[in-house]
TrEMBL record:
It comes from Sesuvium portulacastrum. Keywords: Iron, Metal-binding, Oxidoreductase. Belongs to the iron/manganese superoxide dismutase family. This is Superoxide dismutase. The keyword Amino-acid biosynthesis does not apply. Its EC number is 1.15.1.1. GO terms for molecular function: metal ion binding; superoxide dismutase activity. GO terms for cellular component: chloroplast. The keyword Lyase does not apply. Mn(2+) binds at residues 27, 78. Its cofactor is Fe cation. Residues 3-84 form the Manganese/iron superoxide dismutase N-terminal domain.
Length: 158
């Protein structure tokens, strides 16, 4: 079965004014869709039909297939990103709130660190809040690189 552009869990204008409907439509409807279409073409050409997206990503990374990796990983990264957004403001609770307090001192300090990480590296990429073992940390990955190929459990990305 071919990969599909996931249906967003909110209306395209639900994140305004932070993300306008026009911006969301451009990045989701054009860029994300292009990653899906290109990956499906590569998967067919390379005989990888029936594989999970994470399997395709890992295969591409291990085999050095940059075109397949970049497109497949961006499907995953973008899907994770869109589903991490909500029009409703929510505060961390429970164990996550405790881990944030322990690792960063406060939610505000975490947000500052995540923004600094995401904007402080050269070129394209993603800022990530990840679970690394039993510790949460902020890191960045360049271009299409993704936690899927590492031992990180992603919690949030920007």
């Amino acid at each position: 079965m071919a990969f599909e552009l996931p249906t967003l869990p909110y209306a395209k204008d639900a994140l305004a004014p932070t993300i306008s409907a026009e911006t969301l439509d451009f990045h989701y409807g054009k860029h994300h869709k292009a990653y899906v279409d290109k990956t499906n073409g590569f998967v067919t050409d390379k005989g990888l039909e029936g594989k999970k997206l994470s399997e395709v990503i890992k295969h591409a990374k291990e085999s050095g297939d940059k075109a397949l990796f970049n497109n497949a990983a961006q499907i995953w990264n973008h899907s994770f990103y869109w589903f991490g957004l909500t029009p409703d403001s929510k505060e961390p609770t429970g164990k996550l709130a405790e881990m944030i307090e322990k690792s960063f001192g406060s939610k505000e300090a975490l947000v500052e660190k995540l923004i600094a990480e995401a904007t402080g590296h050269f070129s394209n990429g993603w800022g990530w809040l990840v679970l690394d073992g039993d510790e949460i940390k902020v890191t960045s990955l360049h271009d299409a690189d993704t936690p899927v190929v590492y031992d990180y459990k992603p919690l949030l990305t920007i």
